[in-house]
Amino acid sequence: MNFDLNLLKVFAAVAQVQSFRGAAEKLDVTRSAISQSIRRLEDALGIALVYRTTRSVRLTEAGETLYRQTAGLIAALLGALDEAAMKGPPRGRLKLAVTSIAERFLDGRLIAEFAHAFPLITLDITVTDEEFDIVERGFDAGVRLGEVIEQDMIAISLTGDQREVAVATPAYFASYGTPLHPSDLTNHRCIGWRPSPVSAPHRWEFTDNGQTFAVAVAPQITTNDMTLMVRTALAGGGITFGIEDTFRTYLDRGELVTVLDNYQSPFPGFFLYYPSRHNLAPKLRALIEHIRKSRDQPAGIQTPVDAKLVE
After folding, report:
1. What is the pLDDT of residues 179-223, one digit of tens each?
2. Distance between CA 93 and CA 290 in Å, rounded?
3. CATH number of the domain encompassing residue 222
């Protein structure tokens, strides 16, 4: 037998309130729609379910039997459908893959504020610099630099433009001299970063008159741990290189200083990215809106291709 399961929802409402008008108010439809739905269900079953008078509505014996046998099933089905549609406050587990260099996302403030605003959402954040298909790995979204996000992804800006800087302690430069050109770095003790044990160290890239070039720095110390890299630089271990946000706290306090600033240019920063606009899960939409509010951005999701990774 094929019929619209929504008819059972209407029947249950009529059975509960014993009134077409009351059922119409409960389901926010017209009284005529309720009457027509009950008629369609009766026609599909081939039996009367409701006695109708001008003043009242009550169930027939067949209607009472149907309601008694299906009330629990209907309630469970409607509950399951509501849960699948995520009606009500956003909820569920939100899985994110975040690069370790996304300092502003990982500093805790944005995450803590989001968790406070949406207590029914559970955040599952994997900090990784491995490049992979987030859909294949079961992630809802990721955070990376715009230049490495696949072009078929939807992306919204988290940070605006970023730049890389070379930093060390004032004491280090006092002892070993200050490089005046990026090529001078080959004569200094350097602390490098690599995303994984099988990856090459991150290239130290600079610009001069609009031309980008890399310096073949041979780090004395290389690590995939940003915290170790920063701590080693703070301890006077040498010059290190990375996203300016990584060092911002120490730069503001004067514990680290930058060099070669004239050879650095801004580039598109970090983006939250995900695979599709279609039927966006409420939990992910909540994070997107939270990010927009935190950056005071106007609405409008943009792709790296369409928007060219603008802020």
Report:
1. 999 999 999 999 999 888 888 888 899 999 889 999 989 899 999
2. 16
3. 3.40.190.290
Residues 14 and 154 occupy one common structural domain: no
pLDDT at 283 over 60: yes
Residues 276 and 247 both lie in one domain: no
Indicate the helix (H) or strand (E) that contains 215: strand 211-215
pTM: 0.65
User: Given this model, what pLDDT does residue 288 score?
Assistant: 93
87 CB burial (10 A radius; 0-12, 13-18, 19+): exposed
| Domain span holding position 246 | 164-263
As for how many domains the chain has, the answer is 3
Whether 267 and 161 have beta carbons less than 8 Å apart is answered as yes
Q: Which residues pair with 2 in a beta bridge?
A: none
Q: Which of 252, 288, 293 is nearest to 272 (CA)?
A: 288
- CA 112 to the chain's CA centroid: 14
CA distance 75 to 277: 31
- pLDDT at 301 exceeding the cut of 70: no
Residue 303 confidence (pLDDT) above 70: no
